[in-house]
Amino acid sequence: MKKLTPAFANKKMDGLEQGMIPNPEKKSWSRLLKGNSDLPMEILILFLLVQFICCLSSIIFPANFRYLSESNISVLLKAIPVLGIISLGIGLLMIAGEFDLSVGANYTFTGIVIATLVESGLSAFLAAPLGLALGVLIGLLNGFLTLRFRIPSFIATLATMLFWQGMTLLYHGATSIRFYPGDIFTNLMAGQIGLMETSFLWFVALSLVFWAVLHRHKFGNHILAVGGNKQAATAIGINPTRVKLAAFGLAGFCAALAGILAASRVGTIQPGQGAGIELRAIAACVVGGVALTGGRGTILGVFLGAGLIYTIEDILLLLRAPGFYLDIFIGILIAGAAIFNQLVRERMVR
Amino acid sequence: MDARPDTNITPVSAAAPGSGGVGPLLELKGINKSYGPVQALTNLDFHINPNEIIALLGDNGAGKSTLIKLISGLVQPDSGTIMVNGKPTRLNSRRDSEQLGVETIYQDSALVDSMSITRNIFMGRELTNSLGFMQHRKMRQIASEVLQGVVNIRGIDSPDVLVGGLSGGQKQAVAIARAVYFNRKILLLDEPTSALSVRATEALLEYIKKLKEDGVSSVLVTHNLYHAYLVCDRFIVMSHGQKVCDVSRQETTIEELTRYVILE
User: Fold this and answer.
1) Rounded to whole angstroms, how far apart are CA atoms B100 and B87?
2) In terms of Cα–Cα distance, which of B158, B121, B144, B111 is closest to A30?
3) B173 touches chain A (CB under 8 A)
4) Could you tell me the pTM of the whole model?
5) Do B189 and B263 belong to one domain?
6) Tell me: the pLDDT tens digits for B171-183?
7) Which residue of A has its CA nearest to B95?
8) How many domains does chain B have?
9) What's the CA dihedral at B9, B146, A234, A206 to 10 degrees?
């Protein structure tokens, strides 16, 4: 560390004594809404509003809208983590200014590799870390292709998405594979503690870790800087390649972890199960306020974005709406969120 | 950020050992630089004294930007020496010039619009604990003080404001405040006023003057002679990669400088 000895130390002290400095802890609502980049107020309000309406409806119409029933809460808590964990990785990568379309393929491929390792007699507690490492490697490969050859990550990961989808079929064929990791492992990954699902606890724990990294660690500051203005970050001495490569690796890690959770829950892995999940993860991030251009976004936003997508899916299921309604609503939600975020940003920058 | 034991670069200082205490902070001798067939700088001598504001004048293509890039460590000379505190030094990268205490302020300053002032000031040089977690409260307190401190940026009430919401002048003030906080001794300002309003320009020139009192030297690259004449102690006019005039404020008039810039 360079020693920090400002040339104007004396003036500073004068200022302090005269009380010129505004109280650093002072916060106002307008500032929270306008200037605070760490708290996604809009999505938080929307999320709470939707939850409030759902709970209220469930109390008023307990027979027709069973939102607060035990089985429904259990379904929600089981469904959210897989998409949510993939979204955390994608979100961090998007904030750093890159995409990864191959997370769905990564999620399936690493899941199947782990399942075959377990089938051949390896303990799941060894196979899972190997699978996570494989996921990280797949992510790093995406980063290498994108950064070394300076091609858009959208294209690079479109290529690797198809590559790993093909590799999945080459490695195992088009049939599904069973995943019996043993009771301890299953309970750890997809068990219940009362009403709570362990997979949801994993999602919450990982969200907290990602929150600490993005909003409290210097690496997170570098991610925001590189995604927000790569030239400025470079000029100040941050290495954008290293920051982005790490974000690619983390996205791969999240995809593999989601694969393990999904496989533990269902007990089988379908070679086609990951198709489309990368786009839903990007959708969750956009709904959560992550900018497609990078530099903006919060972990809480991504967390709520994934939760909101599944809440809407759940509402439509409870109302027995046909499946295509889901796509219609999610489409409207994505467009609305993107438009809203754009308007807020334009107002913020005047 | 981290100390680099592998280089022999020491920060510039007014009382450099061996320089007798009043030598230049930075001295360039016999610098040549060409880009392919284009000779950008020819046998150029240039020095920056302590507590001095230098105006670097000249038409487009005179070599001003090349000179700035050279001192920033972004380009290297074909021949000639760069002396720091009386010692020959090589500046191979932006890191090296940063080590030296040089900061370049561009018209489009190196700030990230989507981040707060605090995060911008500490970008890449975050104050952290041993695990790398940022000491937010401390950084925020310092940013708050910096805003009220030497540059006293007008119209900013909180270090949490996003930089994207600031005006051009305020942004440059933040960039300068950052440089000053990290103990930079030489500011290179490359056309800083070209996108600023009259009032913002006046404020910026005031900052530079005030910083001189605190021992920060500046090199102001500009097209605007009147701005330069307001604050600068020494005027260097360049033309076709050569220095055609190097006079102190006492020795010249604005008319004479105008003639140099226009005729050369």
Assistant:
1) 12
2) B158
3) no
4) 0.82
5) yes
6) 888 888 888 788 7
7) A237
8) 2
9) 120
